[in-house]
Design brief:
The structure holds two protein chains of two kinds.
Chain A (H helix, E strand, L loop, with lengths): L17 H14 L1 H19 L33 H37 L1 H16 L2 H8 L8 H11 L2 H14 L3 H8 L4 H37 L10 H10 L2 H4 L3 H29 L7
Chain B lengths: L1 H31 L4 H11 L4 H12 L7 H13 L14 H36 L4 H15 L2 H15 L18 H38 L2 H8 L4 H12 L1 H17 L1 H7 L4 H10 L3 H29 L10
Helix pairs in contact in B: 1-14, 2-3, 5-6, 5-8, 5-11, 5-14, 6-8, 7-8, 7-12, 8-10, 11-14, 12-13, 13-14
Classes of the chains: A mainly alpha, B mainly alpha.
Chain lengths: ~300, ~325
């Protein structure tokens, strides 16, 4: 389940201005068409999650054609009740993407805070925090989520995101700590300390900008893993559901015998392919991010 | 040697503390449960005409603690039972002890996970070496992209696609538990039935996890290829096949740790594959016990899954110190 990211070599970067970052990103994106495709896919999903659900009425019209294949009036076919699969896919994206975004935010805040503090202070707080981190890393995350569903219903995407984030920050905290440990011995950090700059200044102006690229890439990959686990929870049917999301779609498709009979294949495949597409987009985009943040990889 | 033993002892103590925390967690969870399952079973038994004492004893057997009394005495009783490997009785399968249930499904999962992991390890390592050797050609690039994509695909997507296309559309394999009518043992029909049921889950497992091995093997080989001793042996004119052996030996070291760690995680991580293929393992058991609110079985399964991870962690760390003499880490690293 866990996604590991190789820790890139940390190099000091001068905190760049935002406009420079954006022009850099644009340049790097244009260098390879695959990166443009990746950025486009990710942007498409974000737009779909934000404005998509407003395009459809609360109660989807049901056609008499059950589990139909793709046609002009229903681009992705219909489900077992005759509702349009494309509409469900779009409506369902909001829960999934919101929960993943919240989870990624929680992971970044907790992981970076713990990692920075432990790595910069060292000594006793460090070993205490790392014990906790080891514990979080060792507890098998998905089975834990399964067990938690018995007391927690995850009604809103916020709750789902919070729990996913709180069980998933271990890896990030550990690698931020090891990067901080190596950064704090560097000349520029030592110079800042020698100048008598305050600890908040050193942490926010000297350390954070150097860790940010790694955190950003981790965030992107983290979003996909969080999507997998929550869709997985709904797919397994251990959670009651009161709204549509991709996991519920997969579960209902399996329960309605799509894998047994093969009827309504597009109903089952739509959420699966959506997940695959999003993964592809993220993989392609991470490749571009790598180059923006890592000047050594730049070709010019 | 003494250092090794001290390290091992430290790991074991930490592992035991973690197991203690997890058992406490499941104990609290069962007590927090809406509608208090312990109380509910007690009430049901009373309404079935049992005497309060009998009902109390019956509940104590199921959950490992008595329904009434202070939380502390319940907790003490529960831990005492656990020390004797007594996880209580299953509610779903009346009268069967959870330990037996858990162990019988663990047997299926371990078979599946071992086959799947070894398969993906072999494929991942071989393809990873190829991807590293040819990293500037189309073959290498293609392998890396396929690797990171497959690494990213969740197991249930892989499993569902395989189920739908291979068992339903083309009927190549069968799913579900092994035929109950066949005599278990070393006879041909039974083995054939196991193979026909287990091949597809194992393949699904291997397909969704070999990407990770491929990527780590590739980066490991690339970093070894840059080492001075490789350049030196090339300059001395040593045959490529022997150089390849040098590279492989050094590059595969970090992979063994990954292998040990993933074996631990996979006991609980095969949930989706078992579910999609209707395979009677630990993951399927955990889901079923949650679905039917069988809390004693649920905590037993969760405990075993966590223990597998903890043991694998200890093994990985110890293995690393044994096979790589360069790793002599100090305290608290």
């Amino acid at each position: 389940m866990s996604t590991t990211v190789e820790v890139p070599v940390v190099k000091p970067v001068v905190p760049a201005r935002r406009t420079k970052f954006l022009t850099n990103l644009w340049k790097v994106l244009r260098r390879k068409p695959s990166r443009m495709i990746g950025a486009f896919i990710v942007a498409l999903f974000v737009v779909m999650g934000v404005i998509g659900p407003w395009l459809y009425p609360d109660n989807l019209p049901k056609s008499a054609d059950l589990l139909a294949g793709p046609s002009l009036s229903h681009l992705l076919g219909t489900d077992f009740e005759g509702a349009d699969v494309l509409a469900e896919l779009v409506i369902g994206s909001r829960y999934v993407l919101t929960a993943a975004a919240v989870a990624a935010l929680v992971t970044v805040v907790v992981g970076v805070a713990v990692g920075l503090y432990a790595g910069y202070r060292r000594g006793r707080p460090d070993s205490a925090l790392m014990r906790i981190t080891d514990f979080v890393l060792t507890i098998p995350g998905f089975p834990l989520l399964l067990v938690l569903t018995t007391v927690w219903k995850f009604d809103s995407a916020l709750q789902m995101g919070l729990v996913l984030g709180l069980t998933g920050w271990g890896g990030l905290a550990r690698s931020v700590r090891s990067q901080t440990l190596s950064l704090r011995e560097r000349g520029f950090v030592e110079a800042a300390r020698g100048l008598g700059l305050s600890t908040p200044h050193i942490v926010s102006r000297e350390l954070l900008p150097n860790i940010a690229p790694y955190v950003a890439m981790n965030l992107l990959i983290g979003v996909t893993t969080f999507i997998y686990s929550q869709v997985g929870l709904f797919y397994l049917g251990v959670l009651p559901y009161n709204s549509t999301n991709w996991g519920v779609m997969i579960q209902l498709a399996v329960n309605n015998g799509v894998t047994q009979t093969g009827a309504g294949l597009s109903y089952l495949m739509a959420p699966l392919v959506a997940i695959l597409l999003l993964t592809l987009g993220v993989v392609l985009l991470v490749d571009a991010m790598d180059e923006v943040f890592n000047p050594r990889l730049r070709e010019d | 040697m003494l250092k090794f033993l001290r390290r091992l002892a430290g790991h074991v103590v930490r592992g035991l503390v973690m197991i203690w925390i997890v058992t406490t967690f499941t104990f609290v969870l069962v007590r927090l449960m809406p509608g208090d399952p312990v109380e509910t079973q007690y009430e049901t038994l009373l309404s079935k005409g049992m005497s309060p004492d009998q009902a109390k004893a019956q509940v104590a057997v199921t959950y490992g603690f008595v329904p009434h009394g202070s939380v502390w005495s319940q907790y003490g009783h529960y831990l005492w039972q656990l020390l004797h490997f007594d996880l209580g009785k299953s509610v779903r399968a009346q009268g069967v002890s959870v330990t037996t249930e858990v162990l019988s499904s663990a047997k299926w999962t371990i078979g599946l996970v071992l086959a799947g992991t070894l398969l993906s390890f072999l494929f991942g390592v071989v393809l990873g070496v190829i991807a590293a050797m040819r990293r500037n050609s189309h073959v290498g690039n293609g392998l890396s992209i396929v690797g990171s994509l497959l690494h990213g695909v969740p197991q249930y997507v892989m499993a569902l696609i395989l189920v739908t296309f291979l068992t339903v559309k083309f009927k190549l394999f069968s799913t579900g538990p092994v035929d109950g009518l066949l005599e278990p043992g070393l006879n041909g029909a039974y083995i054939a039935s196991i193979v026909s049921h287990a091949v597809l889950p194992a393949v699904a497992f291997a397909l969704s996890s070999f990407g990770g091995y491929l990527l780590s093997m590739k980066s490991s080989v690339v970093s070894v290829l840059g080492d001075d001793f490789i350049l030196a042996s090339e300059l001395r004119g040593i045959r490529p096949s022997i150089i390849f052996r040098y590279v492989a030996r050094n590059a595969i070291l970090p992979l063994f740790t990954v292998l040990a760690l993933s074996l631990g995680f996979m006991v609980g991580g095969a949930v989706f594959i078992e579910n999609a293929f209707n395979y009677p393992g630990m993951g399927a058991m955990l889901i079923a016990s949650i679905g039917q609110r069988d809390y004693s079985e649920m905590s037993g399964a969760f405990l075993l899954i966590t223990m597998a991870v903890i043991i694998a962690n200890i093994c990985a760390d110890m293995l690393y110190t044994v096979i790589d003499p360069r790793v002599r880490r100090g305290e608290g690293a």
